[in-house]
Amino acid sequence: MSELGRIKVLLSSAEKISKEQDVDKLLVMLSDLTREVLGVDRCSLFLLDRERNELWTKVAHGVDEIRVPADRGIVGWVAQKGESLVVNDAYSDNRFNPEVDRETGYRTQNILAIPLFDKKGNILGVFQAVNKLKGSFSGEDVELFTLLGGYASSAIENSILQAKIKDAYREAVMRLSHAAEYKDPETYNHIVRVGLFARLMAERLGLEKEVRDSIMLAAPMHDIGKIGIPDAILLKKGKLNDWEWDVMKKHTIIGYEILKDSSSELLQMAALVALDHHERWDGTGYPNGKKGEEISLWGRITSVADVFDALLSKRPYKEPWSLERTVEHMNSMKGKQFDPQLIELFFSNLEEVVDIREKYKDEEVQSNSGQQDS
Prior knowledge:
This protein has 374 residues and is of the alpha+beta class. The chain has 2 domains: 3-162, 2-Layer Sandwich (Beta-Lactamase); 184-359, Hypothetical protein af1432 (Orthogonal Bundle), CATH 1.10.3210. The protein is built from 15 helices and 6 strands. It has helices at residues 3-19, 23-38, 73-81, 99-104, 139-179, 188-204, 209-218, 231-234, 242-249, 251-259, 265-276, 297-312, 323-332, 340-347, 350-359, and strands spanning 40-49, 54-57, 66-69, 85-87, 111-117, 123-132. A 6-stranded antiparallel β-sheet has the order 3-2-1-6-5-4, with helices on both faces. Helix 1 packs parallel to helix 5 (139-179) and helix 10 (251-259) packs antiparallel against helix 11. It is elongated, with a radius of gyration of 27 Å.
């Protein structure tokens, strides 16, 4: 590829790189672009893990994730010195670590490695191109790779920041979901499991990853409206009278009202979860008596996930049901309480469902509440 051609490829990819917010996808994109532009056999982009003092990569063509001490090998030297490095004969350079070659059967011949810096000038990682397909690395290669490294640094730093923002958002959503549980006997792991069950169903339905991740966070907010239910009713021991039961059922509407006006698509989904999770397939549920597919998919998914987990869980007012009894009961309610397709789908993946239950077990529930799930 000519010098002009390489620059055109680089410039045409710059906008796409700058917009990618998923770190893993970004690393793959940058590595593939480097192979094309520099004409190399393999490429890896190492990021610095300061807590573990390691350089790691999920993108090293032909191998799985690699972790190396931050001061070891060619990439370690570049990270420590903050300087670019061209090695024309890897095995004659005492800085080269042949361990990966030994594990993979690959033969490294030459290397071009450059440091990546964040906006504050701190080392972010190391970009490494391996085995030039024609000849050796030139000064033009170094200049072009350095230019690409500038794009990479900016894009990676932005991507990491976006990931941190998303993590903080997820944590805030889960804490919000848990807020309603402080008055109820349900545990934090209950809402985690409900979210994971919901994501599993969404995945098996073939929904996109973004949607799967959203329902995992939206489903745990199904009972957020209980925040607006008076303690005298929510914490009452024994059976509710008709008036109290009517008040309790309003938690679905309260939850919907809390969430519905958000500009966040996730919280809009959660609003439908809160509103619809007590609707029934046959139209006898509440608050609106919706029937069949009038009920949002998100409400139908959450209903299956929530009831399944509640039946299997110990509460102050009941002992846990066995798995066999739970499956038999929910199958008997197929087409009555639950979407038949979702019940079939859910129990066809029972092994994975049970694995989630095992991984996120409850601690002993301690509560003075005697109120059953509503």
